[in-house]
Design brief:
Strand content: 5-15%
Shape: globular
Number of domains: 1
Distance between the termini: 72 Å
Number of helices: 10
Strand order of the largest sheet: 1-2-3-4-5-8-9-10
CATH superfamily: Aldolase class I
Number of strands: 10
Helix content: 25-40%
CATH class: Alpha Beta
Order of helices and strands: HHEHEHEHEHEHEEEHEHEH
Oligomer: single chain
Length: 349
């Protein structure tokens, strides 16, 4: 009589995190970038660094060559805007889906439903090392609770998405992450859920996970003191001054640090990439008006504008165009961040 795994076709073991990290170790240059990136972001959250954090890059990474080209451009731009912004490249390898769809590079690196997860982990790790060697901190969404064991030493900032902010698993995972972590408000705009999540992530937790050797274990955490809030819109945008002020009041009432980021995409732009610069400019006006609790922005940006559908033949995809949410293109990104930098340096709203 079979009583377990009735709906399971296969269980494919993965190499342990130790095995993968030994095979693909970080370099000294990459480690220095991660350490510096985490330190800079922490100081921004604590208001010890007057700059703003900008998490910018493709909605998701599906083409590593295009990702490297984008990173090279972003690294050069960081030098130009360093007085105003600390840039972190958005490197989303996992994608939550409302129903079904491509689940991200780690799960399906060949874009063909083959789900060669081992290949995805290896290639993702190699990519993150190359990005770090360019001097760019990596920012990603923490989705699967196992993946940080494989890649967490190369990540400088995490987000917990709107669909998982209410998840106990993700709150507990965030409490043990080695980098600052932002929680997004719920998809309907509920900010209280994210405030509760931050409060939970601040605390120690105990939960099931895996060791570096790949064994099941009880993980005991000390709490992540640099969890913060991300306003991403909901049924309506929530980046205007009154929404930011309300978020700050909610955080302070919960005895939490009033650190707020604005996601310029998703509900705040109604998923229209051309609205993202409008949101970013409005946020810079708040910052220049003295709203120091507004610590950063998220921007979805790729080499080329818009997005495209993933069809049956990945070879037909256009280079440098998102296969998930639509993005602004590189010229618009460079112009926007340069403009905001100039305004910040001159102090003009």
């Amino acid at each position: 009589m079979q009583l377990e795994n009735i709906n399971v076709e296969e269980i494919a073991p993965l190499p342990s995190p130790n095995h993968i990290r030994a095979e693909i170790p970080f370099t000294a240059a990459a480690a220095a970038t991660v350490e510096q990136g985490r330190g800079d972001i922490t100081r921004i959250i604590e208001r010890d660094d007057p700059r703003m954090l900008v998490v910018v890059g493709p909605c998701s990474i599906h083409d590593l060559d295009a990702g490297i080209e984008y990173a090279e451009r972003l690294s050069a731009l960081q030098q130009a805007v360093a007085g105003t912004f600390r840039l972190a490249m958005r490197i989303y390898f996992e994608k939550p889906r409302t129903t079904v769809g491509w689940k991200g590079f780690i799960n399906d690196p060949h874009l063909n439903d083959s789900f060669e997860v081992e290949d995805g982990i290896r290639e993702a790790r190699q990519f993150l090392i190359r990005i770090a060697e360019l001097g760019l901190p990596a920012a990603t969404e923490a989705l699967d609770p196992i993946i940080p064991q494989y890649l967490g030493d190369l990540i400088s900032w995490y987000a917990i998405g709107a669909r998982t902010t209410e998840s106990q698993t993700h709150r507990e995972m965030a409490s043990g992450l080695s980098a600052p972590c932002g929680f997004k408000n719920a998809t309907d705009g509920n900010v209280g859920i994210a405030v509760n999540a931050i409060k939970s992530a601040n605390q120690p937790h105990h939960f099931l996970g895996i060791t570096d050797d790949g064994s099941t274990a009880v993980i005991r955490t000390r709490g992540n003191q640099h969890a913060h809030l991300i306003l991403r819109g909901g049924r309506e945008p929530n980046y205007a001054p009154e929404y930011v002020a309300d978020a700050v009041e909610r955080l302070e009432a919960a005895d939490l640090s009033p650190a707020v980021m604005i996601d310029c995409s998703h509900g705040n732009s109604n998923k229209d990439p051309d609205v993202q610069p409008v949101v970013a400019r409005a946020c810079m006006e708040q910052r220049l008006a003295g709203r120091q609790a507004l610590i950063g922005l998220m921007i979805e940006s790729h080499l080329h504008h818009g997005n495209q559908a993933l069809g049956p033949d990945p070879r037909e995809l256009r280079y440098g165009v998102s296969i998930t949410d639509a993005c602004i293109d590189w010229p618009a990104t460079e112009a926007l961040l340069s403009e905001l930098h100039d305004r910040a340096q001159s102090g003009t709203a």
